[in-house]
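Here is one chain, start to finish.
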Amino acid sequence: VLYPGSEDRSVSQEVAEQKPFLIVIVGANCVPLLERFGGIICLDSVYKLDRNRWPIWALVVEDSSGHGWPVAFLYSSSGRAETLARGLRIVRDHAEEKLSRKWTPIVMIDHDEAERAAAELLGWPIRLCEFHLSKAWRQALRQASRNGKLTSQS
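Its structure:
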């Protein structure tokens, strides 16, 4: 648990913003899963599961049968990219220590800006999830059609 730091005796609002609460949970099977399937990881979040409405991120790998396997979870008081990158750095460092090699996965994300920015801060390549990409296209086309910006002559 990275909050508060050992030097902190109490947590003011200012400290909470400067040093967000962050828990990183790495599964016992993290390293074997990353070794076999960690070339591409899926990163996604959910909000509003607790009274504080804080984000929870999951890092998941997909095996050769198409099954998803969680390798880590991050829980934080901040949804900022810097905080997420800090948690991802912990997972990366753990993996690299155990794998004895550099680990730079391709990160599959939806349209979440913090996830994109966090991956970029780590220098990880990004791929957009096909499901979310096609959903965004359908919504944009529907909206353009409703607004009269899309006609059969366009």
